[in-house]
Design goal:
Blueprint: H1 16-29, E1 32-39, H2 42-58, E2 62-64, H3 68-84, H4 92-99, H5 103-114, H6 133-139, E3 147-150, E4 153-158, E5 161-170, H7 177-194, E6 200-205, H8 207-241, H9 245-269, H10 274-283, H11 288-299, H12 310-333, H13 341-363, H14 365-368, H15 378-392, H16 396-416, H17 431-444, E7 447-457, H18 460-481, E8 484-488, H19 490-493, H20 497-510, H21 517-524, H22 529-541, H23 549-555, H24 558-562, E9 564-568, E10 578-588, H25 591-595, E11 603-607, H26 608-642, H27 652-667, H28 674-697, H29 701-717, H30 727-759
Antiparallel strand pairs: 1-5, 1-6, 2-5, 3-4, 4-5, 7-10, 7-11, 8-10, 9-10
Helix pairs in contact: 2-7, 7-8, 8-29, 9-11, 9-13, 10-13, 11-12, 11-29, 12-13, 12-26, 12-28, 15-29, 15-30, 16-27, 26-28, 27-28, 27-30, 28-29, 28-30, 29-30
């Protein structure tokens, strides 16, 4: 069973290169987690961190990231490589100072480094690097962290507290439900152990914790709300039929429909998405109406009824049951027209489930219900009679006034409504998790793995030059303006050959020329002339030495290697191959500035959250358009079937209910999202069942009772989901709660219209 929400989305509009990059980022960052403890002093933090390390070692789902010794060895190799090719390498700031002849700033930093106040380490001695230029190169290898290294973890001092932190990695995919459940239990146990005695507090960061929290909250809410719904439905059926047998028969019809739908959907699509199962099961909740109409008709059939058996009762309502199945299936079939896997799965599941449940009711229920059911109390008859009589006895001018008010309210609500496709509104993490996430990411200066730049060129050299141009035109300015804190790009460590040639020429002309800056500085601080000649000779011997990209990639860390994809097929034709690299950003503070910018050719801004929002928007608009098509097809079918234009008014019940839901949501400034629209398909199916029976037999007590029981059952089964704190579930529940209430309220109007048509 699939559980990833993106599986429901349409195919990505981006090419295969972006898909490959996204997969690579998921593999690199998706299973990484950060574990930290916060304490009042260092000793308490270190003691608590030992508990964390033991817990990681004991867990089969976690492993430590590369140890500190391996990272230190890799960093040392990188420093040696940069030192080897130092005469053709400069930082952007150093190159700018040389270009502007601002050598005083360079010599000032060299003086500080010579006296030990530079603050930046270098593996070279003053005789090898008198101006300490390599110190700036070393600083670019990794962001400076205001932390001390203790064993295999980092210790930060922050706001009178101490935070000890380490990195770990999941051994299983973070979106697996079993993994999420185990990690959640592991985290709770560790948090309790760490906080014992109040000495420390556990902080965590990682995708798996968000996924585990979301799934746990949804399961808890659905279980709690579902228990209340079940109790409510049990009591409702008991008071209505004085027996649980009708409830068992009704649920059996729905269970049979679900079983058949699962088998057929799995056969067609090879797998069933979890959300398809959830929403599909909710959609075929319409099927319980078939059983309710049959049971209520049997309940009110007296001994002297000329129809006799339950089979005769079924025969009387079979046309309405069949028409209800046809209109509901017609509505859901419109979802098949969308080239969207999610909507197609929901359509197939719902249509098969409805047809199977209808078959169960028409074949199995008459066999088990062979005698009249026990009559319900007078309370149910009184409620349904009062509700319908309010509309039956209302004067025409009152009905006309109500109609005008309803139309005006619906039009106003429709004009005020808005659509929301922002993926971030579908998930609301806890405040504690978000606070820990922001604090830890701030300390680590982590890159934003969901947002990056993708660059393409026809050769490696051109790609490095493209990176450099983009950095000069945008990234450096954004860092200076506070749009981002920093960025990572391959060209920061390995400049293009053209740039390395320029850097060498700059140093040759500005620093290592006769009586140049290097000579003046070395003599001024007491170096002998032989040392000056030696460094100048070493510089001249390196005239053709340039840092090759291959040598850098051989010692780069996994995160640094990830930035350079190299030669990537751009299609089936190998002649279309291109070189691809990434530039990742650190701490994005002003995302709109980046999103609105125009970039040079070959640079693409990739925002995976925005992509998901775009896909949600496509899914939502497709569902909304198909919902309108469904209403149109059902209205046309009713017109052709009844050959009376007023029969089309049956569509008004679900339409009015849906419009009233939109209007009420607009009153509270709630934008519509995909799950409001999916719930509207269920409202269409429910409303059409009520309309059909109200049109054909709305004067009968059994129809009135069945409509009432169906509406209350829908409210108890699905409407109570409005109490959920999960935005997706809440949107679905609010729509069904309000819509089912309006369906029940407006159902008698269909009978009034039917009576008016017959009298005319």
């Amino acid at each position: 069973m699939a559980t990833d929400l993106t599986d429901l989305f349409p195919p990505s509009t981006h090419d295969r290169v972006v898909l490959q990059v996204n997969d690579q980022l998921q593999q690199t960052f998706g299973n990484n987690i950060v574990l930290a403890v916060e304490a009042e002093n260092k000793s308490a933090a270190l003691l608590a961190m030992q508990k964390v390390i033991k817990a990681v070692d004991a867990s089969a789902d976690l492993q430590m990231v590369d140890d500190i010794n391996a990272d230190a060895e890799r960093l040392s190799q990188q420093q040696q490589l940069l030192a080897k090719y130092r005469y053709s390498l400069l930082t952007s700031n150093q190159a700018r100072e040389l270009t502007e002849n601002n050598t005083d700033a360079i010599t000032a930093r060299a003086q500080q480094a010579l006296l030990g106040f530079g603050g930046m380490g270098s593996s070279l001695s003053p005789l090898e690097d008198p101006l300490a230029l390599t110190a700036g190169l070393m600083a670019q290898l990794q962001p400076p962290l205001n932390a001390e290294l203790v064993d295999n973890f980092l210790v930060f001092h922050d706001n009178n507290t101490v935070v000890a932190m380490l990195l770990a990695q999941l051994t299983q995919a973070s979106f697996k439900l079993d993994t999420q459940r185990r990690i959640k239990a592991w985290k709770q146990s560790l948090a309790h152990s760490v906080s014992a005695g109040g000495a420390a507090k556990l902080l965590v960061s990682g995708i798996v914790f968000h996924a585990a929290e979301a799934s746990a909250n949804a399961n808890r809410e659905i279980s709690t709300i579902g228990l209340g719904s079940c109790l409510g439905v049990l009591l409702l059926f008991w008071f209505a039929f004085r027996s649980f047998k009708p409830l068992l028969l009704s649920l059996s019809s729905v269970a049979f429909g679900c079983f058949c739908a699962v088998v057929v959907t799995h056969t067609i699509f090879a797998e069933i998405h979890l959300l398809t199962l959830v929403f599909g099961a909710s959609l075929i909740g319409v099927a319980i109406d078939y059983a309710l109409h049959f049971l209520c008709k049997c309940q009110l059939s007296k001994g002297g009824d000329t129809h006799g058996s339950s089979y005769q009762t079924l025969k009387n309502i079979l046309p309405s049951l069949s028409l209800g199945l046809f209109t509901s299936s017609l509505g859901y079939s419109c979802l098949l027209q969308a080239q969207l896997p999610g909507l197609q799965q929901v359509a197939v599941f719902s249509m098969v489930g409805l047809a199977s449940a209808w078959l169960f009711v028409t074949v199995v229920l008459p066999y088990f219900v062979k005698q009249n059911l026990a009559a319900s109390g007078a309370w149910l008859t009184g409620i349904t009679y009062t509700l319908w009589q309010l509309w039956f006895k209302a004067p025409r001018f009152v009905l006309f006034a109500i109609a005008c008010i309803c139309i005006a309210f619906s039009l106003w609500g429709g004009a005020q409504s808005s659509l929301s496709s922002d993926a971030r509104t579908l998930y609301k993490p806890s405040d504690a998790l978000m606070a820990a996430e922001k604090r830890l990411q701030h300390h680590l200066q982590a890159v934003a793995s969901n947002q990056y730049f993708l660059l393409r060129a026809s050769s490696a050299e051109q790609l490095l030059q493209l990176e450099e141009r983009f950095r000069d035109e945008h990234l450096e300015r954004w860092v200076h303006e506070g749009v981002i804190d920093g960025y990572s790009a391959t060209s920061r460590w390995v400049p293009s050959l053209a740039t390395q040639n320029r850097y060498y020429a700059l140093q040759k002309n500005k620093l290592y020329s006769a009586e140049g800056t290097v000579e003046r500085f070395m003599l001024s601080v007491g170096f002998p002339i032989d040392a000056v000649e030696s460094i100048r000779s070493d510089f001249l011997l390196s005239e053709r030495a340039r840092l090759p990209l291959s040598e850098w990639l051989a010692v780069a860390s996994p995160e640094q290697k990830m930035l350079w994809l190299g030669k990537v097929p751009n299609g089936d034709n190998s002649a279309l191959n291109s070189y691809v690299s990434l530039i990742t950003l650190q701490a994005i503070h002003q995302l709109p500035v980046i999103a609105r910018s125009e970039f040079i050719e070959g640079v693409t801004w990739v925002d995976r959250v925005a992509q998901m929002s775009d896909k949600l928007d496509a899914l939502m608009h497709a569902a909304l358009q198909l919902l309108c098509v469904a209403y149109g097809l059902i209205a046309l079918s009713l017109l052709l079937l009844y050959r009376r234009w007023r029969a089309v008014f049956m569509v008004l019940l679900p339409l009015a209910s849906s419009l009233f839901v939109v209007a009420l949501l607009s009153c509270f400034s709630v934008p519509l999202n995909l799950f409001h629209i999916l719930a509207s398909f269920l409202l269409l199916g429910l409303g059409m069942d009520y309309s059909i029976f109200a049109y054909s037999g709305g004067r009968g007590a059994s129809t009135q009772r069945a409509v009432f029981l169906s509406a209350i059952t829908s409210i108890l089964s699905f409407g109570l989901l409005a109490l959920s704190a999960t935005p997706m579930i809440q949107a679905f529940g609010v729509t069904l709660l309000l819509g089912s209430s309006f369906n029940l309220l407006f159902a008698p109007l269909i009978t009034v219209l039917a009576k008016s048509q017959k009298s005319s």
